[in-house]
Amino acid sequence: MLRIAVPNKGSLSGPAAEMLHEAGYQQRRESKELRIVDPVNEVEFFYLRPRDIAIYVASGRLDIGITGRDLLIDSGADAEEILPLGFARSTFRFAAKPGTVTTPADLAGKTVATSYEGIVAAHLAEHGIDASVVHLDGAVETAIQLGVAQVIADVVETGTSLRNAGLEVVGDPIMTSEAVVVRRTGTDGEDPKVRQFLRRLQGVLVARTYVMMDYDCRVEQLEKAVALTPGLESPTVSPLHNEGWVAVRAMVPSKEAQRIMDDLYDIGARAILTTAIHACRL
């Protein structure tokens, strides 16, 4: 069986389970379950702390896992990213009291508090900055107020927590992160079970990104319509009973669907419909 590590809690857990369910895999019913077997798909899922997943995968005990890119890099584990999953996106940045640090060079000689010591130490070393790093678990915003550090490095989404703590971001982002599928570095990428798993997840990603659009248009407007809805390879075009009219079907990006519908209507298309795509293979 394919052995897969899945986040057991936190911001990664729910979306990962939802994506796996959409991909046709059985998921646990109780949060206390640490392992389940999906015999139909020949997969065994292990529910682990997100921070530990890259380490388990790197050990070779598990074939692949779902974790955050930030956790993968911070772990220093001998594992690699093979597929970004598009959820749990975040930005990792430095922050300090206003006026105390304005450029990354100002970090020299200061102490940086973070829950991601591996990422910060590597970033500082890469840029030749001599600063101390202190590891703290959980929220690090109070580290400056309590005198533990002069700078923090943490995940920043809206920046509200930083502003409430009287802090501001410093310099460019250290990195951007999202949920990713990881495997042991150097593992043979031709494993058919792993390829099938990745195809299923890629199918979910496409299904979430596109909708199916159907509409009728006059033949003389077909080229303009097709230019608006080129599809992936090309749209499906079928003649209608009424002469001079055709029915067109194509996948379009869901974020652009309303605009495309307006443009189609303006050139004379009618009966314009969109439907959700629940699964696909490209």
Automatic annotation (TrEMBL):
GO terms for MF: ATP binding; ATP phosphoribosyltransferase activity; magnesium ion binding
GO biological process assignments: L-histidine biosynthetic process
Source species, domain of life: Bacteria
UniProt-listed InterPro entries: ATP-PRT_HisG_long (IPR020621), ATP_PRibTrfase_cat (IPR013820), ATP_PRibTrfase_HisG (IPR001348), HisG_C (IPR013115), N-reg_PII-like_a/b (IPR011322), N-reg_PII/ATP_PRibTrfase_C (IPR015867)
Catalyzed reactions per annotation: 1-(5-phospho-beta-D-ribosyl)-ATP + diphosphate = 5-phospho-alpha-D-ribose 1-diphosphate + ATP
Cofactors (names): Mg(2+)
EC number per UniProt: 2.4.2.17
UniProtKB keywords: Amino-acid biosynthesis, ATP-binding, Cytoplasm, Glycosyltransferase, Histidine biosynthesis, Magnesium, Metal-binding, Nucleotide-binding, Transferase
Regulation of its function: Feedback inhibited by histidine.
Protein family membership: Belongs to the ATP phosphoribosyltransferase family. Long subfamily.
UniProt protein name: ATP phosphoribosyltransferase
Organism listed in the record: Streptomyces gancidicus BKS 13-15
